[in-house]
Amino acid sequence: MSGLAIDDAAWASAWRPRSPGDKVLVSLGLVFSALLLPVWPGSVLVGLVAVGLALGPARVPARTFGRAVRAPLAFIAIGALTTVVEVGGGGVGWAPDAAARAGSLVGHAVAGSAAVLLLATTTPLSDLLPALQRLRVPAAVIEVASVTYRMLFVLLTSLRTIREAQTARMGYAGLRHSYRSSGALAAAVLTRSWDRARRLQEGLAGRGLETGLRVLPETLPASRRFEAASVLGLAALTAVSLVVAR
């Protein structure tokens, strides 16, 4: 399968053979560190460690990681803007502690996003779903996530095919044609996705499937050495952050 750069990077990552539990330990530890430690130097260190692990040992392409972080950065920028604006009797103005608020929000959010992307770019969803099942996450939640994951590639294939056909017919030659082609593209993709979901549901119902799809997951053994190094690294990061913050 192809079409999602993050998914392709996860399959090609050097950390792909590692147990999902090992990678979840590192990522969740960094996320909690980003949320609980002071922005300086805690969040800065978390962000640097997450990016360093992704580009270094995990060998995630820098371009892929940079493209993946653009969307979270846009939401973070919008959120930071809303925190520094204050509405009062005198109208709209800057909050008294605007710089501190914005800096704290951006620092925690960017570090946490980098930690989550570390997991996303090193662990395919097909590895995470069995791990969630072992953690006794409701089967309905796992099934919805699995079907949504599979449908993404169908939608991306349809999107690429229709857009190539429109481009070949000069559908994007000019602003007016671009608006019309974009509307037709969205309508066609939504219609195809709805039809594909309906046919999938009817096919499963016709086979009498009342439970989730049973598959044989790949067993990836955990590494005690990796887990110990992760815990020690997180502890050292926490200690350095607290010492410098004081």
From TrEMBL:
Q: Which UniProt keywords apply?
A: Cell membrane, Membrane, Transmembrane, Transmembrane helix
Q: Do you know which Pfam families this protein is assigned to?
A: CbiQ (PF02361)
| Topology of the protein relative to the lipid bilayer | Multi-pass membrane protein
Matching CDD domains, A to Z? EcfT
**Record gene name:** cbiQ
Location in the cell? Cell membrane
NCBIfam families named in the record: ECF_T_CbiQ
Q: Name one GO biological process term.
A: cobalt ion transport
Keyword Membrane in annotation: yes
Per the record's keyword annotation, is Membrane included, yes or no? yes
One GO cellular component assignment for this chain's record is: ATP-binding cassette (ABC) transporter complex
Where are the bilayer-spanning segments? Answer: 25-56, 68-85, 105-125
Under the heading InterPro entries, the entry gives: ABC/ECF_trnsptr_transmembrane, Cobalt_transport_CbiQ, ECF_CbiQ
Per its record, how is this protein called by name? Cobalt ABC transporter, permease protein CbiQ
- Superkingdom, taxonomy of origin: Bacteria
